Amino acid sequence: MPPSPPTTMQPRKTPIQNRSRVTVEAIYEATIQVLLRDGMNDLTTTSVAERAGVSVGTMYQYFPNKQALVYALNARYLDALAVRIEATCREQSGAPLGQMVEALIETYWAAKTERADVTRALYRSVAELNNDALIHAFAERVDRATAEMFSSARDAVFADVPRANLALVTVIYGTVRNAFERGLSTQAAADLRQDLTTMCRAYLANFSV
């Protein structure tokens, strides 16, 4: 059974009206800025509220504590990432296998590097949170999209799509995260990305028609 989000991490309410959504967006952006400036240990709901230009009382209407706030921020980030991956998978349906994997690598790499400082901050922010439910939901969602994409390849036959898919996404996602944790130079990161594509294409050659 998939893990359930901890009850202490649940937001108090979901914004419905446009004004409320704008307020929560401001809170999320302020949380990112405070995370970058102070780190997770020194982040407080007061400092986020001040940065967002809202009262602490407004903050508590949505998030009961800073852990729930950061948990929601990570959920938002993973949802946006999943949307991008799903869109790429739909666009690449029926394409050659090599093109598919290159598009998947490019999408994931771009999503992580557009705001690299934010990516690093979010990686660090979840160290003290129980985010198993978030990761499980994200993995289940993108696995479904990537497996369907690979199954549609015009130039490949898979005896075991889930196994091949798991190998590919594990290598891709793990490599990108490792690149961030190492703080690679621009050139080293570019070389790693090229080598990642080469390795994935070599693996996929086993399934080419």
In short:
This protein is mostly helical and 209 residues long. It contains nine helices and no strands.
Describe the structure.
With 209 residues, this protein is mainly alpha-helical. It has a single domain, classed as Tetracycline Repressor, domain 2 (Orthogonal Bundle). The protein is built from 9 helices and no strands. The chain has helices at 18-42, 45-52, 56-62, 66-91, 97-113, 116-125, 132-151, 161-182, 186-204. Helix 5 (97-113) packs parallel to helix 8 (161-182), helix 7 (132-151) crosses helix 8 (161-182) and helix 8 runs antiparallel to helix 9 (186-204). It is elongated, with a radius of gyration of 19 Å. The relative contact order is 0.12.
List keywords for this structure.
mainly alpha, elongated, Tetracycline Repressor, domain 2, 209 residues
CATH homology-level superfamily: Tetracycline Repressor, domain 2
Give the amount of beta strand, in percent: under 5%
Radius of gyration: 19 Å
- Summing up helix and strand content along with how strands pair, one would put the structural category as mainly alpha
H/E element order? HHHHHHHHH
Number of helices: 9
CATH fold node name: Tetracycline Repressor, domain 2
How many β strands by DSSP?
0
